[in-house]
Write a structure and sequence with these properties.
Elements: H1 2-12, H2 25-28, H3 65-100, H4 119-125, H5 130-154, H6 161-182, H7 190-215
């Protein structure tokens, strides 16, 4: 009877599905949820991989005709002043050579070398005639005035009070040394160098500095230059 009941059950339930196997505990456990990303701070910029495009330089507009005329006029005026300064420098060089390097045999017995500053100036001031005093002191001062005027105009790198003084003193020392060594009737005098340098200082303050700044306006002093 038992065999018959089993056969009957198989006949009655031919399409019965097998029971599913239980899943392991690792697969049945729920997956952990991903952590939320922290919110960006207010005002923080997002980083982008693409570089920002550089702004294109603006095209410069040509200057108006009035400005072009002014620029042309200033260029011509500058060229005229430079040409006049060159002519004056040449004439001054000839006059300086004639005054300082021409022999004077008649005054050979009256001259002597002076290396003490102020000795010859005191001798000039002690002369009885005021005319002789003015001639000696004023002549040496006027001899150095063109240096102070022409150096800043012709040579922009020579602009500056200290440079004008140093260059004038060096030139005058060379002239005085040449007088004492090679020219008859002439002698080296340190007071002449001092008076010539004072004249160059006077010429620079009166005309050399304004003219040099007008002709070379973009030339700054060494203490105002910025290091690049």
């Amino acid at each position: 009877m038992a065999i018959r009941v089993g056969l009957l059950d198989r006949i009655r339930k031919p399409n019965a599905k097998p029971k599913p196997k239980p899943k392991p505990a690792a697969e049945s456990a729920p997956k952990p949820k991903p952590k939320p990303k922290p919110a960006a701070k207010a005002g923080a910029r997002k980083r982008t991989s693409k570089p920002r495009p550089r702004p294109r330089p603006r095209a410069r507009k040509p200057p108006p005709p009035v400005l072009q005329r002014r620029t042309l006029g200033s260029t011509l005026a500058r060229a005229a002043v430079m040409a006049a300064a060159i002519v004056c420098m040449a004439a001054f060089a000839v006059a300086l050579a004639k005054v300082t390097l021409v022999p004077s045999p008649s005054s050979d017995a009256l001259i002597h070398t002076n290396l003490r500053p102020g000795a010859s100036i005191r001798a000039y001031l002690d002369q009885p005639a005021l005319r002789d005093t003015v001639k000696q002191i004023g002549g040496n001062v006027l001899l150095g005035v063109p240096f102070g005027i022409l150096l800043p105009v012709l040579f922009p790198h020579a602009r500056g009070l200290l440079r004008v003084i140093v260059l004038t003193a060096l030139v005058m020392v060379m002239i005085e040394a040449t007088q004492g060594a090679l020219v008859e009737g002439r002698a080296f005098d340190i007071d002449d160098v001092i008076l010539n340098t004072a004249g160059a200082l006077l010429g620079y303050l009166l005309l050399g500095r304004p003219l040099g700044s007008a002709l070379h306006p973009h030339r700054d002093h060494w203490w105002r230059r910025r290091k690049t």
